[in-house]
Design a protein that fits this description.
- The structure is a single chain.
- This protein is of the alpha+beta class.
- It contains 5 helices and 19 strands.
- It has a 6-stranded mixed β-sheet with strand order 1-17-19-14-13-11, with helices on one face. The protein has a 5-stranded mixed β-sheet with strand order 2-10-4-7-6. It has a 4-stranded mixed β-sheet with strand order 3-9-8-5, with no helix packed on it.
- The radius of gyration is 22 Å and the shape is globular.
- 25% of the residues are buried.
Length: 286
């Protein structure tokens, strides 16, 4: 089961013009022990940081601008509960925040959760930044050792699985962007199609359904009915009449932390039963 929006698919903030405040020279001098000194053209040169698992790095980034974080992972995955917008392209994570609130990120090498880079981004009114992350020697060795053997040998099944996960993320990203996902058709919700979250204070109402070639996506309005702020546990939510083996993915958007009375959308992707038997083609030789 895949929890998507802790992962690497998110919406990039729309470009917007922002009046930047002047940054005093003494502030820049103070931060040069950790930040790379400004270039001769007035910009800020890329900064390279050695990172290790379990050690949180605090990095200054630009507020109201797109920042570029170059990771050491071929296909990084991002987990955050911040409202900052993130997007993954290749080995690069783009981050944009219109708030000065700190942004905490965990970046892992794809589906491998045994190694994680922990970052706290501090948005400031400075020009856009490029941060280049490098793994310490010990962490690089760990990453090499934990790569799946099938991936190293070019196993076809492993490649197909990765493509399936990538397609699933793309589908849920389209839903988050208020688009009808490619390859799916919308239809009225059946009376027996419900979503249940085994979490106190979470109430769900299915409002939309989309059918694809071998999966169905149920979209439910999910409300916090408690008097306190709670975190929606996506793993506790399943469709009625399905077992855990039938759940392909569960993702909440745009919020996971819900204030009292606040609602969010919940996407539940369910594998259609009996499909294998229906798709068997009789041989023309019989």
């Amino acid at each position: 089961m895949i929890g998507l929006f802790g992962a690497a698919c998110c919406v990039v903030a729309e470009p917007q013009s922002v009046d930047l405040l002047a940054v005093p020279a003494d502030v820049l001098k103070t931060g040069q022990s950790q930040e790379t000194a400004p270039t001769g053209t007035g910009g800020i040169a890329p900064q390279t940081i050695k990172v290790s698992a379990g050690i949180n790095e605090i990095i200054t980034v630009a507020q109201n601008h797109l920042n570029r974080i170059v990771t050491p992972f071929p296909s990084p995955r991002v987990r955050t509960v911040s409202r900052a917008e993130t997007q993954v392209e290749g080995n690069v994570v783009y981050v944009a925040s219109n708030s000065e609130d700190p942004v905490t990120l965990y970046i892992t090498p794809g589906e491998n959760e045994s190694l994680a880079i922990s970052l706290t981004l501090a948005p400031k009114l400075i020009p856009p930044r490029e941060i280049r992350l490098e793994l310490a020697g010990v962490e690089y060795s760990r990453l090499t050792q934990t790569q799946p053997a099938a991936k190293k040998s070019g196993n076809v099944d492993d490649t197909v699985q990765q493509e399936h996960v990538a397609q699933l993320k793309a589908t849920l990203r389209e839903l988050a962007l208020m688009q009808s996902p490619n390859g799916f058709s919308g239809r009225p919700v059946s009376a027996n199609e419900t979503v249940y979250c085994d979490q106190q204070g979470i109430q769900t109402t299915v409002g939309q359904a989309f059918d694809g070639r071998n999966t169905t996506i149920l979209i439910a309005k999910t409300v916090n009915t408690t008097p306190q702020r709670i975190e929606l546990d996506e793993r506790s939510c399943i469709g009625q009449g399905t077992g855990l083996s039938d759940i392909v993915a569960v993702a909440a958007w745009p919020d996971v932390w819900l204030e009292p009375g606040q609602s969010t959308e919940l996407f539940v992707v369910v594998k259609q039963r009996g499909l294998a038997e229906e798709q068997i083609r009789p041989s023309v030789l019989r």
